[in-house]
Amino acid sequence: MVAMNITIHQSYLPQDDPDAALAFYRDALGFEVRSDVGYGGLRWIVVGPAGQPDTSLVLTPPAADPGITDEERRVITEMMAKGTYAGINLATDDLDGLFEKLQAGDIEVVQEPTDQPYGVRDCAFRDPAGNMVRIQQAK
């Protein structure tokens, strides 16, 4: 069997306020905006880390799939409000510096930089939609 070269190209996170999502991912984290597309009153924003053009995060309207029921939309909205619907793990080579920068803004801190028993040092924030954003020190 031939080994396959597979990479992560895009990952999706819900956002319910496109401007707030941009302020967090572009302005606070420094991600580049790759595209910003509106359709039917909804908006999909593709962002990614500078220098990594092949890796993107799609900030998508929650429950935009037409196959989702009203009850499913309600559950998704409730889970987003509690911060239990979606999340992402990021890495940096300067966790403390990034934490200080983010903490100085209007961002909800969930966990300050901590040495974890499983071998990483990380911190956690919630983005404007309530998604958990964990950031760990790159080794």
From TrEMBL:
Q: Name one Pfam family in it.
A: Glyoxalase
Q: Which residues form a coiled coil?
A: none
Per its UniProt record, what SUPFAM superfamilies does this chain match?
Answer: Glyoxalase/Bleomycin resistance protein/Dihydroxybiphenyl dioxygenase
InterPro entries in the cross-refs = Glyas_Bleomycin-R_OHBP_Dase, Glyas_Fos-R_dOase_dom, VOC_core
- Residues in domain VOC? 7-138
Protein name per the record: Glyoxalase/bleomycin resistance protein
Q: Which lineage ranks, top first, belong to the organism behind this chain?
A: Bacteria, Bacillati, Actinomycetota, Actinomycetes, Mycobacteriales
